[in-house]
Amino acid sequence: MTIQELYAKIGGDYDQAVRVMKKDKLIDKYVRKLTASNVGEMLAQAGETMDGTKLFESAHAMKGVCSNLGLVALANAADEITEEFRPGNARKLSDEQVREKLQAVIQRYEDTTRCIREYEAQG
Predict the structure, then answer these.
(1) Of 42, 122, 37, 121, the residue nearest 71 (C-alpha)
(2) Which CATH architecture is the domain 3-121 placed in?
(3) Going by C-beta distance under 8 Å and a sequence separation of 6 or more, which residues neighbour residue 53?
(4) Burial of 74 (0-12, 13-18, 19+ CB in 10 A)
(5) What pLDDT was estimated at residue 98?
(6) What pTM was estimated for this model as a whole?
(7) Is the N end or the C end of the chain the one with fewer CB atoms within 10 Å?
(8) Which of 111, 104, 48 is closest to 81 using CA atoms?
(9) Does the CA dihedral 8-12-14-15 come out positive or negative?
(10) Contact 27, 17 (CB under 8 A)
């Protein structure tokens, strides 16, 4: 699997990643680091307690990392949580709706990191 094929599989925007990182070697390096990050775990833990500050911080971190890597689908999913808990924003979703969205974000994160591990295993 090439880096471009990985991006197609995980809902990424390879061209966006190239605009930010400039080289395939850097894209490869940093996309692999996503599997070692704890950003998904942090978001899941924040969701267990429904701590608004932690939900904002962890979703914002995921959004930022994924945006820089061109992982658009995951960044967009995290953005919904980020904006729901952004300081100064009025809540629009119930806790149950937030939990559903969190589950979707975490599932997408797990799917994305699984695909990245498959990519890593191929060379």
Answers:
(1) 37
(2) Up-down Bundle (1.20)
(3) 85
(4) buried
(5) 95
(6) 0.88
(7) C
(8) 104
(9) positive
(10) yes
- 22: region left, alpha or beta (phi > 0 left; psi from -120 to 50 alpha): left
Is 91 within 8 Å of 79 (Cβ atoms)?
A: no
* Span between the terminal Cα atoms of the chain, in Å: 9
What does the alpha-carbon distance between residue 86 and residue 26 come to, in Å, rounded to a whole number?
A: 31
Residue 35 DSSP code: G
- For 43-104, give the secondary structure using H, E and C: HHHHHHHCCHHHHHHHHHHHHHHHHHHCCHHHHHHHHHHHHHHCCCCCCCCCHHHHHHHHHH
Q: Which residue has the tokens 């975490």?
A: 106
Read off φ and ψ for residue 97, nearest 5 degrees: -65, -40
13-69 pLDDT, tens digit per residue, is 999 999 999 999 999 999 999 988 889 999 999 999 999 999 999 999 999 999 999
